[in-house]
Design brief:
Blueprint lengths: L2 H10 L2 H27 L17 E6 L3 H9 L5 H13 L5 H6 L6 E7 L3 H15 L4 E3 L2 H5 L6 E4 L6 H10 L3 E4 L7 H13 L5 E3 L7 H11 L6 E9 L22 H5 L9 H5 L10 H5 L1 H12 L6 E7 L12 E8 L16 E8 L8 E5 L2 E5 L3 E5 L7 H5 L10 E3 L24 E4 L2 E4 H15 L7 H20 L3 E4 L4 E3 L8 H6 L5
Helix pairs in contact: 3-16, 8-9, 9-17, 10-14, 14-17
Length: 532
C-alpha cells in the first residue's frame, strides 16, 4: 500500500482491517496482471488425445526380458510382482504420502493377458510367471529362447526389455512374425540394424510398433508443444539438457544375484552378437557398462532428453554431432564413459521469430551428463523472447532483451527474475506467476504424470496407448520414425566419442559420414571396447 493510503486507513479502521483491505487490493491487482499475461501468451494446457475403449477381445502378451525394467512394464500393464506389492504396502503404512500403492491399484484394466514369459535367467522367468499366476490364477508358458515365444500362436504382441544389443534383432523377428512390438530404448544397438528394423515395420504396416518413451504421456510435454506453436519463446537457439546421478545404481553398478550360474543362465543366448567369453555375472547384471551389450550415456540416458525435446520441437536428426567425455567417476573396469558432453547442430532449424525475417536461424542441442554429481539441472529451451524450463512442471522466464515482451517488461508487468508462466499438471488449471518468491522444481516426468490432480504411472499410459493402437487402430506417439531419428542421433554421438571426430548426417542419402573415415565399418567402431 502507498504510505498515504496506509495513514488514511489508520484514521478510520481497526489495524487488522487496514491490512486486510491492503491484502485484498494486492490480490485484485495480481489477478489483473495474471489475466493480462495469460491473455498475451494464450497458452492452452493440453491433455493427451483421448484413446479408445479397452473392451473387446483379450490381447495376449509375451514378454522377453523379465528383469527389473521388464517387471516394471508388467506392473504398468496390471501385473505386479507380489513381493513388490508387499514392499510398497509396508512403505505406505509407514508413510501415507507414499502413493505408489494407490497409483497401482487405481490403474485401469487394459484387458490383456500375459500368455508367455521369456528370460535367459531362469529365476527372472520364474518371478514373471508367478506374477501372472498371482494376478489371474493361471501360469503363462515359460521360455528360455525368445524364438520359441515368437512362434507361440497364443501371443499377439511382445514387450521387449532385454539388454540393448537384443532390442533390434528380437523386434525385427517379432514384426516379421506378425507380432505387435513394444521395445525399450535405445531402439537399436548398431547403425545397420536401425535401417533393418525400420524396413521391417514399414513392410508390415498391420503391426503396431511403440518405443518405450513414457514421458510422451506427460501433460506438460504436450503443453510445451502449444508454447512452441504459438512462438512464446521466439527463436530458440540453444537447448540445454542434462543428466546428473551420484550413486552406484545410477552408474549401472547394479546388484549381482549370486544365484545366477552357468546352469540356470543361457549364457550363449545372452551374448548374442557379442564376443564369446566364459560366463561372467558382472557382464550379465551390469551389461550397461560394456559396449558389447549396451549403448552407454549416448544411447541409454541421452535418449530420454533427446526424445523429450524432439516430441516438442520435431527437430529430427542433427546435421552434425561432436562428443567428448571419459571415465572420471567410476573406475571399475567399465568401458562406457560416465561423464559426457554432446553438441548436436541444427543450422537450418527454426522455431519462428519475433524479429525481422532472416535474422535468426539455427539451433544447438547441448547434452551433458555426469554420474558423479546429483545437482538438479532442468532442461532449458532458450529463445530470443523467453526461456522455458521443463520437465513435469513448465516455467517460462521472459528475456531482458525480448522483442515480443518489450512493452510488458518496460511497464514492469513482468520481470526477468520471476517466471511469467508456470504450469503444474498435479493441479487443475494454470498459473501466471508474478511473485519473485515463486519457486519451481521440475522433474523429467519419467515415472509419474498426473490426470486431474491424480498421480498416474506414465508407463501405464504409454502401454495403454500401444494396446489402444492394436485394439482400435489409433496412431501411437512414439513409433518407428521417432525411434529411427533417436537411434541414428544416439549412434552419431557414440561414433563421435569413439573417433574424436565430428560426425555428419547426409539426410538426402540417409547416411552417417565421418570425414577421413568414409569406408570405416561404423558398427565395428561402436562395438569396439576402446576408442579408435
Amino acid at each position: 500500500m502507498k504510505r498515504r493510503d496506509l495513514l488514511k486507513g489508520f484514521a478510520s479502521l481497526p489495524l487488522l482491517g487496514v491490512f486486510g483491505w491492503g491484502i485484498f487490493r494486492k490480490k485484485s491487482d495480481d489477478e489483473k496482471i495474471k489475466k493480462k499475461i495469460l491473455t498475451e501468451l494464450n497458452i492452452k494446457a493440453k491433455s493427451p488425445t483421448q484413446t479408445g475403449s479397452m473392451s473387446g477381445d483379450v490381447i495376449r502378451l509375451g514378454i522377453v526380458g523379465a528383469g527389473g525394467r521388464g517387471r516394471h512394464l508388467m506392473r504398468a500393464a496390471g501385473y505386479a510382482d507380489p513381493e513388490w506389492l508387499k514392499k510398497i504396502e509396508e512403505a505406505n503404512n509407514k508413510n501415507s504420502l507414499d502413493k505408489r500403492l494407490e497409483t497401482y491399484l487405481n490403474q485401469e484394466s487394459l484387458n490383456i493377458k500375459f500368455t508367455a514369459v521369456c528370460d535367459v535367467f531362469d529365476e527372472h522367468t520364474a518371478i514373471a510367471s508367478n506374477t501372472v499366476n498371482a494376478t489371474i490364477g493361471e501360469k503363462p508358458k515359460e521360455y528360455r529362447n525368445y524364438r520359441e515365444l515368437l512362434n507361440d500362436p497364443n501371443v499377439d504382441a511382445v514387450i521387449i526389455a532385454t539388454p540393448d544389443h537384443w532390442h533390434a534383432p528380437i523386434a525385427t523377428e517379432a514384426i516379421r512374425a506378425g507380432k505387435h512390438v513394444y521395445v525399450e530404448k535405445c531402439m537399436t544397438h548398431k547403425v545397420e540394424e536401425t535401417f533393418e528394423l525400420r524396413n521391417a515395420v514399414l513392410e508390415n504396416n498391420d503391426v503396431v510398433f511403440q518405443l518405450g518413451h513414457q514421458h510422451r504421456q506427460t501433460e506438460s510435454f504436450l503443453t510445451a508443444m502449444d508454447i512452441i506453436d504459438k512462438n512464446v519463446l521466439g527463436h530458440v537457439s540453444l537447448i540445454e539438457a542434462c543428466t546428473n546421478r551420484n550413486d552406484d545404481g545410477g552408474a549401472w553398478q547394479y546388484w549381482i544375484n549370486d544365484k545366477a550360474n552357468a546352469s540356470n543362465v543361457d549364457w550363449k543366448q545372452f551374448l548374442g552378437s557379442a564376443k564369446d567369453i566364459p560366463f561372467n555375472p558382472e557382464h550379465l547384471f551390469r551389461w550397461r557398462k560394456y559396449w558389447a551389450y549396451g549403448t552407454g550415456l549416448s544411447g541409454d540416458l541421452l535418449p530420454h532428453d533427446y526424445d523429450g525435446v524432439n516430441s516438442v520441437l520435431k527437430m529430427g536428426i542433427p546435421d552434425s554431432v561432436m562428443t567428448s567425455g571419459g571415465i572420471y567417476t567410476h573406475r571399475d573396469n567399465r568401458e562406457v564413459p560416465d561423464v559426457m558432453q554432446v553438441a548436436m547442430e541444427y543450422p537450418d532449424f527454426s522455431t519462428g521469430s519475433s524479429q525481422e525475417k532472416g535474422k535468426e536461424k539455427g539451433m544447438t542441442f547441448l547434452y551433458s551428463a555426469t554420474l558423479g554429481n546429483q545437482h538438479w539441472r532442468p532442461t532449458k529451451m532458450m529463445g530470443h523472447d523467453a526461456t522455458l524450463e521443463f520437465g513435469e512442471v513448465l516455467t517460462i522466464y521472459p528475456d531482458h532483451n525480448s522483442t515480443r515482451y518489450k512493452d510488458m517488461l518496460e511497464k514492469k508487468v513482468i520481470e526477468t527474475s520471476s517466471p511469467m508462466y508456470s504450469y503444474d499438471p498435479r493441479f487443475k488449471g494454470v498459473d501466471a506467476v508474478t511473485s519473485a518468491t515463486s519457486k519451481y522444481f521440475a522433474q523429467k516426468g519419467l515415472l509419474y504424470t498426473h490426470r486431474d490432480g491424480r498421480q498416474v504411472d506414465s508407463t501405464h499410459l504409454h502401454i495403454r496407448e500401444w494396446i489402444n493402437g492394436i485394439r482400435n487402430g489409433q496412431k501411437v506417439s512414439c513409433g518407428i520414425q521417432e525411434g529411427f531419428e533417436e537411434a541414428i542421433s544416439a549412434h552419431m554421438a557414440t561414433l563421435s566419442y569413439k573417433t574424436g571426430k565430428r560426425v555428419h548426417w547426409d539426410k538426402d542419402n540417409e547416411k552417417i559420414i565421418i570425414h577421413g573415415m568414409e569406408d570405416a565399418d561404423l558398427d565395428s567402431i561402436i562395438m569396439n571396447p576402446d576408442k579408435v
